[in-house]
Structure formats: C-alpha cells, structure tokens
Amino acid sequence: MKEKKIDWMITLVPLVLVVGLSILFFLLPEQSNQVLSQIRFFFGDTFGVYYLLIGLGIFLLSIYIAASRYGTIVLGAPDEKPKYSFFAWGSMMFTCGLAADILFYSFSEWVLYAVDPHIAELGSMQEWAGVFPLFHWSFIPWGFYLVLAVAFGFMLHVRKRERQKYSEACRPLLGKYTDGLAGRIIDLLAVFALLAGTATTFSVATPLMAGIVSELFHVEISRTVITIIILLITCVIYTYSLLHGFKGISVLAKACIYLFFGLLAYVLLFGGEGRYIIETGLTSLGKMVGNFLELSTYTDPLRTTNFPQNWTIYYWAYWMVWCVAAPFFIGSISRGRTVRQTILGGYVFGVGSTLTSFIVLGNYSMGLQVTKAADFIAIYQADGDLYGMIIAMIKTLPCTPLVLLVLLVTMIAFYATSFDSIALTASCYSYHRLGKEEKPHRMIQLMWCIMLIVLPIALVFSESSMSNLQSVSIVAAFPIGAVLVMIAASFLKDAKAYLNK
Predict the structure, then answer these.
(1) How far, in Å, CA of 439 to CA of 437, rounded?
(2) CATH (residue range 3-500)
(3) 373, 366, 291: which is closest to 114 by C-alpha?
(4) Which end of the chain has fewer CB atoms surrounding its CB within 10 Å, N or C?
(5) Domain locations in the chain?
(6) What is the pLDDT of residues 50-76, one digit of tens each?
(7) Which residues make Cβ contacts (< 8 Å) with residue 258, sequence separation at least 6?
(8) pLDDT-derived band of residue 29, with 50, 70 and 90 as boundaries?
(9) Cα(309)–Cα(303) distance, rounded to whole angstroms?
C-alpha cells in the first residue's frame, strides 16, 4: 500500500469526525437536529450575501475564461486528443455531477415553491413555480463545477502535479505555504465538505427509493429501515463499480443517460401533458434568463419570506460542497479538450440535460395541478411527505409499475456514477502524492466507500427534516467558498504565466 505515501492526517481526522457525528445522530437525534437548525440559521441568515456573491462571481468568471485567451489552453499536451467521445465524456460529467437528487427535485421542487409566500409576492404559481427550479439547477451551479474543473484539469494535465488536492490548486497563490499548515487546513476543509455533500444528497433522495420499493413489492417495513437497507446494498454495488475504475464508471454513466432520457421521453409522449410541458417550460426558461441578475442578487433584506435564505443560499452552498469531488472528476476526464470546450460543453450537456429534466418531470405534475386533474399540493400539505407525493405523481402515468422500476434503476445508476467519482477523489486525498498512472490502493478506496455511507445512514436514522439536511451543506460550504475563490485566482495567475511563456 506504500504506507509512506498515505496522508494519515487527512485520512484519520475525517474518519474520527464521521464516526463521532454518526454516534451523536444515532444516540441524540432530536438534540442533533436542533443544533443543526440553529447553526444553519446563523450562516444562512447572517452571511447570505457571501454565498450569493460567490455564486454570481464564479458564473461570470466562467464566461470570461471561455471567451478569453485562457479558453485556447489544451488540458494536456498542445496536440493531445480527447480520450473519450463527446457522448461518453458528457454522460460521465452529467451523472457524476448531479446524482439521483435531480430526479427527486425534478418531480417535487415546484410544489415547494408553490406553497412559499414569495411566489404570491411575485405573481402566480403558473408564472413562477417552474422558474426557480431552472434557476437553482442551471448556470451558477454548473459554473462552480466548470471553473474548478478547468483549474484542476490544468493542474493535473498541463502542470503535471502529483498531489490531487485542493491545496495543490492553490499553490500559485500560496507558494511554499501549500506544504505547510495552510495547505493542511484547506485539504481538511475540502474533505469535510465532501462528506457533507455526500451526506446531504444520499439523505435527501434515498428515501424515495425506499418508497418505490415499498410500492412495488408491498413491503410494510418502515421507510427508515428500508432506506438503510438500500444504502447498504447500493454501497456494495457502487464499491464494485468503483474498483473497476473509469471503464466501469463510463459504462454506468452511459446506461444511466439512456434510462434517464428514456424516462423523460415516456413522460413527455405518454403522460398526456406534452403541450403544457413544452409551452410552460419555454416560458419559464425565458423568465429565468430575463430575470437572471435579479434572481442572483435577491436577498430579501426585510425577511418578508426568507426565500433566498431557505432556497437560493442553500443551493449555492450545496453545489459548493459538491465541488470537492465532481470538478476533479470532470477535470480528469477532460484531458485533451481545450478550456473553452470543457466550459461550453459542460454548459451544453450539463445544463441542457438538467433543464430538460425539470421542464419535463416538473411541468408534467404541475400541468395536472393547474387543470385540477390532481391536487399534489394538498397531498404534500396534509403530512409534509414529499416522497409519498412523488409516488402519487408517478401513479398518474400509464404502466405505473414499469415507470417506478425504471425510476429506481435510474436512481441507482445515478448514485453509482456520482458516488464512484466522490470515493475516487476522496481516496486520492489519502495520499501525499500520486503519479500520472497511479491509482489509490483498493483498501483505501473501500475505506472511503464505507465512510461516505455511514453519515447518510445516521442522518436518515435521526429522521432529519429537509431544513436540517440543508444545514449540513450550508455549514460546510462557508469556509470552502473562500477556497473556491482562491483556486480560481490561482488558475488565472498560473494560466497567464503559461500563456506568456
């Protein structure tokens, strides 16, 4: 295992933290949730502008990088060709960056906004409930990913760095301090953010998989128990695919894309709401683009509804913590592509696929709501059960069991590719250095696979609310936001020196 290469501090400190937090959530679930809620309010309410400015700034920077001479830099040798086809590359990028959350939120997010007082302030549900899902999942989130992806790709493929860590990406700014305490703190913050992002995404969407299993097989066990069983089973599946390397991840990503778009096509063509889906989707997209700057900077200073604190700030924080794993993975598979191709291709494939999902799945159920063919808002308000509401939505489609089965398999495939990219990135953090062709030892990868699944199980067991699950990301994103800015500045400095030579 080449023990001298292993960074025991970065490996053991997060392990102790995960074990400690998991024990607290298991033994003191109510008290843990209360503390999370208080911490979330402090960061989201007091420092909300911080998250919003970083989000808008990184997006604008991505456009500048792609349009400027930085965009001509090849992530690799100047004459190097891409290793993966555009489809395989885009599939891996999209699936590693979103996980199964996209399916959970595509179905349900418009309902969360429809019952929010801020929508009444703006206008009607028809006008705005479909706009915010597109805003919260498109340009700014993918801007985070793509700016960091080209920074990491430049670091790995152009500068040939052997330390696949956040601190190494800051070396052009930090210099010799990268190898000291400053670099260690940055790497620990990155790993903590990685754990928070994984915990949030698995805790949010996995109960939907449990609900689908209950519906398909008429299992009466509690959702919490089924969720934990699913997490344990799928952890085995994900670990197996991870140990087969990029080839296994590529195959899973392609299968996931076919299933994903097959599901969208089925809902669009056979759900009976095709015209409404297309027309409302186009209208919402236009409204989102036309109001983009206003939506990006809205802070609700009088706190009349706390909408940006509850949603926009949470989402930017959520994407920040995911930036520890996904951009490293995107940067790795983008070898041979230019910076411009990586950014614009990411926006075309990543944002395009994301918007399609929200437009089709979200507007299908919203169409049934506005025509009074169903009342999903009433179902949600009755007991606050988003998962039961989503299954009620799916039951309105023809061949419901088949749709549920495809949705379950698609979610597993989504989780597999995203989980594998996370575990692979985390495993690299356990080493001081990794050569060009070196991979983390399988035992290190296995350890991270287990560690990444423990905290989500603890959060599910403690039955954390949506707000408390969001808190995990908001807290972890606060320090990591400053690191993202440092990485972006470091890339610009290093890339400028490279171009000048």
Answers:
(1) 7
(2) 1.20.1740
(3) 366
(4) C
(5) 3-500
(6) 999 999 999 999 999 999 999 999 999
(7) none
(8) confident
(9) 9
